[in-house]
Design brief:
The chain is an alpha/beta fold. Helices cover 15% and strands 33% of the residues. The structure holds flavin-adenine dinucleotide.
Length: 220
């Protein structure tokens, strides 16, 4: 069903990272949003899925990191767009607010895959850096935005499916790099299993649930 509040945005570029990961850039057309917001992106048949905005709230364009899902209704359609096509999008919505609404408390980021999108939006928008970022990907070439993040804070990458100069394995092997104190807030985004394991690990270190903020993109 087409939402009447939707707006239509021209595709500026589609960049392939390899292994089914794409960055889709759309014309912004003045759309206002807060880092952490999602929009519903519609395919040509009117079906939509939520995607987190990866660009900063002062950037000229609107960017998304899209993982193409085999047999999916929307993500393969998005990955197949080319410059000049158009995409309908809903107004922004969201409740995940990395680094925001916590006063001057320090904070750390944890992401798997496209779960890095809200954190890229944060660092492109705000000057106050996270204390660190843990980032888990399958292949090193999937680590979209790693250099940008690494310039802003210590960024630890775990690569699970190939040996690289980074840690080989899952992001769980990086949890011990998280600063632990009675002020830090922790933001975890991406695969459900990582978000659950990060929560359990932090809880075991005595971190209360109010300081653990979570958003799940993919189940399992
Ligand atoms: C709040 C939120 C933000 C999101 N942000 C992003 C983002 O920035 N980038 C991004 O690539 N994706 C994001 N997603 C996931 C996205 O919304 C879609 O679920 C995904 O792109 C698959 O949609 P599809 O239409 O291609 O596949 P579908 O047609 O929905 O499904 C195809 C196959 O994939 C499986 N599948 C679909 N969705 C999921 C899922 N979420 N977890 C596990 N299996 C699934 C289905 O069971 C089916 O077998 C987000 C999800 C949420 C809830």
């Amino acid at each position: 069903m087409i939402n009447l509040d939707c707006s239509t945005h021209a595709v500026l570029s589609v960049k392939a990272y390899g292994h089914g990961l794409y960055e889709v850039a759309l014309e912004r057309n003045g759309l206002a949003f807060t880092p952490g917001d999602c929009v519903a992106l519609y395919n040509g048949g009117g079906q939509s899925r939520p995607y987190s905005i990866a660009s900063g709230s002062r950037d000229a364009d609107l960017r998304f990191l899209i993982r193409e899902m085999d047999g999916g209704e929307v993500s393969p359609w998005l990955a197949g767009r080319t410059s000049g096509d158009t995409v309908r999008i809903s107004p922004p919505f969201g409740w995940f607010r990395p680094g925001q609404e916590i006063g001057d408390a320090p904070f750390a980021f944890m992401a798997t895959g496209t779960g890095i999108a809200p954190f890229l939006s944060y660092v492109a928008t705000f000057d106050r850096p996270p204390s660190c970022c843990l980032y888990g990907v399958r292949h090193e070439s999937d680590a979209a935005g790693f250099d940008t993040l690494d310039k802003r804070c210590p960024t630890h990458l775990a690569v699970s499916r190939e040996a690289t100069r980074h840690r080989h394995g899952r992001i769980t092997g990086l949890f011990s790099a998280l600063p632990l104190d009675d002020r830090h807030h922790y933001y975890a985004c991406g695969r459900e299993s990582m978000v659950g394991e990060a929560t359990a690990w932090l809880r075991a270190q005595g971190i209360p649930l109010e300081r653990i903020h979570r958003e799940v993109f993919f189940h399992g």
